[in-house]
Predict the structure.
Amino acid sequence: MADADHIAKIVSRLPRDFVWGTATSACQVEGAALAEGRKASIWDDFARRPGATKHGNTPETACDHYHRWAEDVTLLTGLGMGAYRFSLSWSRLLPDGIGAVNPKGFDFYKRLLAALREADIVPYVTLYHWDLPSVLQEKGGWTNRDILRWFGEYVDAVIRHLGADIPNFIVLNEPSVVAYVGHYEGVHAPGIKSAAAMYAAMHHLNLVHGQSMRQIKAAFPRAQAASTYTHFPIYPLNDSAESTRAAQLMRAVWSDGFFGPLFRGEYPREIAGQIAPFVREGDLDLCRTPGDFLGLNHYCPDYAKPAAEELPARLTFAHNAGKIEPIGTTDLGWPIVPDGLYDALVDLKTRYAPQRIIITEGGCAFNDEPGPDGRIRDRRRIDYYAAYLDAALRAREEGVPLEGYFAWSFLDNFEWAEGYGPRFGLVHVDYDGGLKRTPKDSYFWFRDLLRAHKAKAAA
């Protein structure tokens, strides 16, 4: 099917008010790691550990969005996305985690928010996208219950200095990654390998979500606020009872350990005993604070395989090891399974019945480079988005309250432990050529899709 025909087919299935956006995070694009008062985050520290990231890459420069934000807003304007999701750097705003604010840090975000407003691009601002100030990690970070007080002070500063310009808050990005990958597997910052640390972090993340929701809504009742969660089908590695149980346990750790407290005020029975030492009276009432919408990040299904220890089961991330046949793989080796997104959306509707869902991240790593004519022909990315959007709209047509989709990501960027190898962006960044930005074919595909959708809305 020709792109124009495919775009017309997608648009015909969309409501007029469907939200289109693209996304980044501070640590992945800003750079300027120690500029103008900013101090280190746990990702600055972690990336300097030998072997922690591919090729020893660090976020010190990233895409230098801190200095090139005006150019990037121009690219966003040309793309025509109605919304832009980005995160704030806690270390840039409160360099010591608490206490004195950094005026230059707040000025940066004020300029960015003003430029987005001028361009008629609606901001969705993430408060925590994994980059905890290092000074707070030295005090235990997410394993220390004092994180509620620290995060509360951070949210209060954001509300006071920026809140009037933020119509949409996202409190936490993918808390399961923070807890499991950062505190149990140890392959993300802060690099801890402890089940107890994971369970402590999980509970404190749930509490911080509830507390922050209440702070934001008290200050700005009309603002939209939520957290965003990574959710996908977790399949058994094989037909054995052991693998089936591993998948059930992994779902409890990865998804239900957050959705259970959020929607029901309870932890799943598989992990309730492990969480219990960290729970105090009234905690679960605080955790049970659903957002104005549910943010969903989705890339691919995964498989769980049994671990030597009883809990938690380990997850085999993004390996094509099970019975589900992908239609392809990305350049990271992640399976391309559009039905995985459909299944994830239907599962959320069936088990938790959120009133509104926005896909706050979806995308793929394809490392296409400019051709001799300078054009970046990332056909595989276009086909990926077309297939995943089709799956999402099938779920919507079956009653899933899906209201928007954000493409990950706007720019090629620092992809955490994978460094600068994987390219997820709609815009190519030349890391060896002065960080030159070049829109890819997928950028123009989205531009055409958005124009067609706007024309429908105006009709």
In short: The two ends are 25 Å apart (CA to CA).
